[in-house]
Predict the 3D structure of the following.
Amino acid sequence: MIDDRCSVCAAHEPSPCLVAWESPRWILRHHPGPAPLCGWFLLCSRRHVASVADLNPVEEREFARILGACMRALRDTRRVPRVYVVMFGEGAPHLHAHLIPRDASCEATRAWAVADFYRAVERRERAPAAPDAVDAIIASMRARLAGELDCLTHA
Ligand SMILES: [Zn+2]
């Protein structure tokens, strides 16, 4: 179930302050600091599974439901026109969907440019998201998702 060599498995427990929503099978947490953007979340399976293609039928149904709810919540909470979803599974072979708010005021985060933006923050060439803004969006997402995903929280 948990692979102790996997960085996604390892990230489930130590960062409860980054968690916006969780259930027995899923966890939504903000990107740890330095965060590339305020509202850059990761939706992860708790089970060590490589990709959506490897989910069981129950997990697959839940994933679609949760991904949609998280994208709506992030779009509305950050007030962005859309939310990007990126899943490579290369850094860690464990399902983790990057949910990235498309900030219309920042052209450097548009489409594939967001990958360059991400690396620039990683290299400390761009400022990361402000920690207080990150805390605020996590709190807003918690409030929103607690209601919308209540039926899955204890499933
Ligand atoms: Zn894992």
In short: The pocket of zinc ion is lined by residues 3, 6, 8-9, 48, 94 (CB under 6 Å). The helical segments are 7-11, 57-78, 113-122, 131-148, 150-153. The longest helix spans residues 57-78. The chain is about 40% helix and 15% strand.
